[in-house]
Write a structure and sequence with these properties.
Bound molecules: iron/sulfur cluster
Distance between the termini: 44 Å
Order of helices and strands: HEEEHHEHEHEHHEHEHH
Helix content: 25-40%
Radius of gyration: 18 Å
Oligomer: single chain
Strand order of the largest sheet: 3-1-2-4-5-6-7-8
Number of helices: 10
Shape: globular
Strand content: 15-25%
């Protein structure tokens, strides 16, 4: 691998996912990147973080993958949009890293979460890392926008104990927010429901962008009908990723947008609860 990409650093751990990391595999040959993605022998990771209490149940190790097929206007990690911004990490190295934490994760009722970026852009690596985690008795979760869910076979889905599924907007406004249609995400959600796979819905609450009842209402109804949604997490928008947009020379459209008030957050949670869902 050394001839094709630089070796991964000694520590994969970032101080936080908000650390800006770019061009970590900029010199990698295209054929190496393609082969890695096709086989999952190597993953491209923005970073690993440990001790997360907000990315699934218990305390989690989180592998942040690089590469995303969406362009959400509120994305707080646009440095994860490009695969080669991630460092090339052989699967065995990632498994070895996880092994260090496995006892602690079990004691703290936690596990591994693979987030991003969009982990299903690197679906083979994601599934193989989840399978390795399960083989060592570690709970597995992925955080995904669901658009590429049909890349996963039913056997692949069995390696994932929990899906943290982003439902970000509704109807035409979904494309305006993310650049993509919502259809494939909803299809994936229905398939997870049919297979009774546990799901936590993640919804980012942005005043003036996603707080409208014409968005929250249909998402709540859809999620409630699925029958496998264990909770909805209403995540308040924040400006912590703004500096990344500026540093990367990207056009950020939410400069003037404030974080939602506690009252708006609570009212949105109530709208989900009214549909029969648990919401926080
Ligand atoms: S799906 Fe996630 S990583 Fe991709 S652009 Fe949207 S918020 Fe960012």
């Amino acid at each position: 691998m050394s001839a094709e990409a630089s070796s991964p650093p000694e520590s994969l751990e970032a101080k936080s996912p908000f650390e800006l990391r770019v061009n970590q595999s900029a010199g990698a040959e295209e054929s190496f990147v393609k082969r890695s993605i096709d086989t999952g022998d190597v993953g491209f990771l923005h970073s690993f973080t440990t001790g997360s209490a907000v990315d699934g149940p218990g305390i989690r190790v989180v592998a942040w993958t690089a590469g995303c097929n969406w362009r959400c206007r509120y994305c707080h990690n646009p440095d994860t949009w490009t695969v080669t911004n991630g460092v090339a990490v052989p699967l065995e190295r990632a498994v070895e890293e996880l092994r260090k934490y496995r006892r602690g994760l079990n004691v703290m009722s936690g596990g591994l979460t693979i987030s991003g970026g969009e982990p299903l852009l690197q679906d083979r690596f994601t599934v193989r890392l989840c399978a390795a985690a399960k083989a060592m008795g570690v709970h597995t979760a992925i955080e995904t926008n669901g658009y590429l869910g049909d890349r996963l076979s039913d056997a692949d889905l069995d390696q994932i104990d929990l899906v943290l599924l982003g439902l970000k907007s509704w109807g035409d406004r979904h494309r305006d927010l993310t650049g993509k249609d919502i259809g494939p995400t909803l299809d994936f959600a229905r398939r997870l429901a049919a297979r009774k796979r546990p799901v936590w819905v993640r919804f980012v609450l942005v005043p003036g962008l996603t707080d409208d009842q014409v968005i929250v209402g249909p998402i709540a109804e859809f999620a409630a009908r699925l029958g496998n949604v264990q909770r909805v997490e209403v995540l308040p928008f924040h400006q912590m990723g703004r500096y990344k947009w500026e540093k990367l020379g990207l056009d950020y459209t939410l400069e003037g947008t404030k974080a939602p008030s506690n009252e708006l957050h609570e009212a949105t949670c109530q709208a989900f609860r009214a549909a029969g869902l648990e919401a926080y």
